[in-house]
Amino acid sequence: MLPTIEWRKDRVIMIDQRKLPVKEVYVECTDYNQVAEAVEKMIIRGAPAIGVAAGYGVALGLLKVESEENLDEEFNRIYRRLERTRPTANNLFWALERMKKTFKKNKRLSFSQLKKRMIQEATDIEREDIETNKKIGIWGKDLLKDGQSVLTHCNAGLLATAGYGTALGVIRAAFQEGKKVQVYAGETRPFLQGARLTCWELDKENIPVTLITDNMAGFLMQKGMISAVMTGADRIAKNGDTVNKIGTYTIAVLAKEHSLPFYVAAPSNTIDFNLAEGTEIPIEERDPQEVREIGGRCLTLPNVKVQNPAFDITPAKYISAIITEKGIVRAPYEKNLKGLGRKKNLRR
């Protein structure tokens, strides 16, 4: 599989996810503004991948600074630009804070050594993300049984991460273990991450996938065609409320009505312990043209009023378990997320 993002010869290289699956095109970013624009324009998307991009954006920004004079000011300018890109995904802010700590800790190094240390830190974030996703897969694969059909929404695979994936990482791990798992991928309007990206990923690895429109999920559940739901997350409040791609809440309610398990797979850095509940999580409102058009072709009245929230909130009561690299967490979430990593709070 192709890498989502990488550092190469003092450039940040990323696959342009807007072009998939028709074309596999790579974008080269030579300064931090280009990285920021790539995040804003969804050349790269997915909470963990955005975090990796933020780390590399900081490193690239400092690499281009020519003088140590006003270095703190330069760092803050780079930080603030990347911070403004997208408001919802916690991984973005987690990565920026990690880069800030590294910067402050190593300011006494020579200027060239500091730059190298910042590049190393960003590279570590990428490497650790892949390792984290594989651990999520190991924890989560036992939740899926041989012969089950899994509904997923949006794209939480390697394209949404540095590699391997969260929700798709669990499915991938189960499949690699020999389980015959059938995936139903919701198209995920309006950006069609499920139709364009999830189907592309799973087809590359010969994992059986069937594409459905977003409004078919209830029908398939009613017919007994879905065994479980597996999604990713962009931010999780400390009470377990989860923000994910718009439409996730609808699927969670349907799963509850049909007594189906609804699983969330996400790295622990997606959890925002500063927020008590999901209503405190900022929801990004995106360009109305994403709803009016598909592939540049207008589907409706060109000036019709549009609402385009990119995410919605799934209350913790609808979530059967949250799968992290440290283990599987179940309710009560406020207690068990806080104790994440303690074995007594984790069970399969």
Automatic annotation (TrEMBL):
What keywords is this UniProt entry annotated with?
Isomerase
User: What's a Gene Ontology MF term here?
Assistant: S-methyl-5-thioribose-1-phosphate isomerase activity
**A single GO BP:** L-methionine salvage from methylthioadenosine
Please name one Pfam family that this protein belongs to: IF-2B
Record carries keyword Acetylation:
no
- Is this entry keyworded Isomerase? yes
HAMAP family in alphabetical order: Salvage_MtnA
Please give the name of this protein. S-methyl-5-thioribose-1-phosphate isomerase
UniProt source species: marine sediment metagenome
